[in-house]
Each structure stands twice: as C-alpha cells, then as structure tokens.
Amino acid sequence: MSLWPRRWTVLIGVVVAVLMVCGVVLACATVFPAWLVGPDVGGTALTRVDRLKAENDVRSGLLQSMVGFLALGGVALGAAATLRQIRVNREGNTIGLFAKSIDQLASQDISVRQGGVYAMELLSGLDRGYRPAVHALLTAFVCKRVPWPPAGGTGAAAVGLPDDVSAALAALSRREMITEGDTSELEYVDLRGADLAGMNFRRTCFLGSNLAGAKLAGANLTQATLAQVTLRGSDLSGADLTGADLEGADLDGVVSSAATKWPAGFRP
C-alpha cells in the first residue's frame, strides 16, 4: 500500500471518529435527557420546572461522563503512541547493534571480533527475529576463521583455538540463537585440540572436520553429523552421541568411558 492511500485511510478514520463523538455529545445534550427523564416519576406527573431541572441534571451527568471517557481515551492514545515510539526506538537500537556487530566480526583486532560475537549473542536474546541471521553469521564466522584444511599455518593443533572462535563456539553451544530443530553447519573446520568439554552441539554438522585431540568430555553430540570427521585421540568420556552419524569417522585412539553414549548398534 502506497503512502497516500494510507494517509487518506487515517484521515477518513479521524473524521468519522470526530463525527461520532460530536453526534454522541449532541445526543447527550438534547435527546437523551428528555428520553431518560420521561413524562412522570413513579406515576406522578412532573411540572415543567421540575422536568427541566431533571433534564438539566441528567444532561450534566451525561456530559461529565463523556468528558471522563474522552479523557480516558486520550490517556489510552497517549500510551499507545508512547509504546509505538518505544518499539521504534528499540528497533532502531537493535538494527544499529546488528550492523555494528557485523563490522566487529570483520575487524582485524581479535578482541573486537570477540566483542562482536558477544554482541551477536546478546542481540539474539533481545530480538527473536535476528536469531536465524545471527546463527548463520556465527557458523560462517567459525568456518572462515578455522577452515580445514587450514589456509596457512599449523592451525588449532599448535596454538589452540583463537579467542574469537572459542567465543563463537561457546555462543553456539548455548543455543540462544538456534531455533529448535535447526542444524548448525560447521563443515570442514579445524578444531584440533579444541576444548569443547560439556558443550551442546546437538544437531551440528561437522562433516569433514578435524577434531583430532579435541576435548569433548560430557559434550552433547546427539544427532550430530560426524561423517568423515577425524576424532583421532579425542576425549569422548561421558559424551552423548545418540543418533549421531559416524560414517567414515576416524576414531583411532579415542578415549571413552562407560558413560559415553554411542549411536544405536555402534561398537567403537
């Protein structure tokens, strides 16, 4: 709908409302008093003076009631306008926070990128509408920062995960931005030696990733995709892999315990 039709709709609505109010006020001043008083009271006919006095009393009461209703209407309209302004301000703030967070994730300073991750998580808690975008951005951020095979250097095995990547993984683990039933795409990432103990990576796809030597004790990996994933030497003590896809996974040297839950029918 274009701007002008909206303006005409609002204008017509205001005119109709004003006419209705004027009609009610006119009726309260002329029609209702005579109708409500009637020709007699309890079967006793009223004199002209008594009748006029009674009509004036009724008229005053009706008009005072109208004034009260109009005052309440004004308060309601003011409250509605205030709430609308608060909503507009909040939307403006969240849009600003979202844009700033994206800029922070692209910063050359690792501490600024880490701050951007926290801001993204905060935003997903403030406005549910941003959750899908925040989820996609954080997973893409991890995939770009620590790809497997690494674009250069020795990756996580030598120096551990960068702080910004650790922050993003921790945020994804807390799942504030993940809608129930959605899958996190962390395919072909280098998480060698990463400390992911106790984290929740339910329904996360790690296809083709390298988690050699990763600490996954007590981690929730239910329904996770671990196909073609290198888990060599990783610690899966107490981890829950119920329903996980381990097809082609390298489990050589994996540490497990009696509390480790494997997929149905799987024997390590």
Task: Describe the structure concisely.
By secondary structure, the chain is an all-alpha fold. It has helices at residues 3-29, 31-37, 48-105, 110-126, 131-145, 156-159, 163-174, and strands at 40-41, 44-45, 184-185, 204-205.
Topology:
Blueprint: H1 3-29, H2 31-37, E1 40-41, E2 44-45, H3 48-105, H4 110-126, H5 131-145, H6 156-159, H7 163-174, E3 184-185, E4 204-205
Parallel strand pairs: 3-4
Antiparallel strand pairs: 1-2
Strand % is under 5%
- In quaternary terms, these chains amount to single chain
Please bin the fraction of helical residues.
Answer: 40-55%
The number of distinct β-strands equals: 4
Describe the protein.
With 268 residues, the chain is an all-alpha fold. Helices cover 52% and strands 3% of the residues. The chain is built from seven helices and four strands. Strands 1-2 form a two-stranded antiparallel sheet. Strand 1 (40-41) and strand 2 form a beta hairpin. The radius of gyration is 34 Å and the shape is elongated. The relative contact order is 0.06. The model has no long low-confidence stretch (mean pLDDT 84).
